[in-house]
Amino acid sequence: MEHDRDEANPVIVSGVPSSAASSAIDPDQRTWPPLLAGVIAALAAFALSAIAFAIPVFALWLTAVEVGPAWDTWTEVAAITGTAWLAGQGLPVSIGGLTVSLLPWGLAVIPALLLFLAGRWTSRVGDLTRPVHLVIVTLAAVVVYAGLAVGVAIWIDDPSAGLGRVIATTGVLTLVAFGVGSMTGAGLTSSVTSALPGWFTRVISGAVVCVGVLIVAAAIAVGVSLIANAEQTHRLLMSLTPDLAGFIAIIVLSLGYLPVLIGWAVSYLLGIGFTVSSGATISPFSSASETALPVFPLLGVIPESPPVGAAALPVIGLIAGVLGGYTLKRRGAGGWSFLAEVAGMIGVATAALWALLAASSGSLGSDLLMNIGPIIGPTLGVAALLWGVGSLIIVIPVLAAGPADPDFVAVDRSTSPAARFGSDDLAGNIDQVGSQHQQEGRLDGQHHP
After folding, report:
1. Does the global pTM surpass 0.70?
2. Domain ranges of the chain
3. Exposed site from 42, 97, 230, 403, fewest CB < 10 Å?
4. Which among 433, 432, 413, 409 is positioned nearest to 421, based on CA atoms?
5. Which residue has the higher pLDDT, 60 or 260?
């Protein structure tokens, strides 16, 4: 009987969460050990991502009218594919003897998506019913994928990114994408997040809101500017006189550089701006009409002069702070600890914004295109200030209201008697009590006419 009850109620089987038990493979079917599953999944993700970057490179080689001496043989083209693959991981590369550190890291979505899907695949073929299994399968994938990246860097002999940076960048990419994929696929997300303290999840949620508002606003600004300056973008494209292969390459690079442009737009919205072409600064308070921009169609979105009302754009940072503080309050922050959580939220959001701005900065090789991108330090300072002021708009009324009434105790409906007994039982109890009172009333009427 005990065995039958366990089979009927997978929630209590061996302490495994119901979501994980429901997605578990039939125990009669042989499952892969987590270590083997992680290795195979990382190899598959690497192979598919290499193919994804090889297809456009070989297509350019086959369709180009003229090719340089570096494109003579297929082995040299394969080496160029390796360079493109490293750039797609967010690593600086050397092209024509020039180091390119401002990369189209939007292309990193390709390996990230493949690693995520590989992580979910391991949850179907491997036994990932415990958090320790997730650790094993993810670490195995990190070691294999980062090791293969080191092999590619050594093979193409590119000194632009040291081996330490290759390991760190690809390792973090695998850890996040593959780890999230395996965790969600195994159904252990709730069990992992429920173990986190409440203040931690509130701080992370608030930071996501603060940075997310800026990114969404920047993406909208880029889209609007792209539509408004479509003629200038088309003129830059036609000035390159590309053939079909060149046109495809420009489209792919433009998509890869879109997140970089969004990083520039974030700095622009906060009133600081960014530098292009030998240190020329473009901001809501300066004009780009006299700035020599690189001949790249995507840069056509940069307005020649600040739009009307551009000086008020930093208000978006203030709004982001208000929404971040409201997120903390809505999730249960209160009292003087509210200030500590706001400080933590601003710290996490500043670190995340730094990562975005740093990834959107770098060099395109030539002297005129050195150290271009957002002005990071002042942008972070303005963002932190606006977030703090916006959060205080929510914090001050909460502190002024004082602590909650200590005699008031909120009732958790999930643990209340009504929830435990069920609505039907509670209704039955109410009817029973009502009948008892009616009977007592009739007796009182008999004794007291």
Report:
1. yes
2. 2-195, 199-400, 412-441
3. 97
4. 413
5. 260
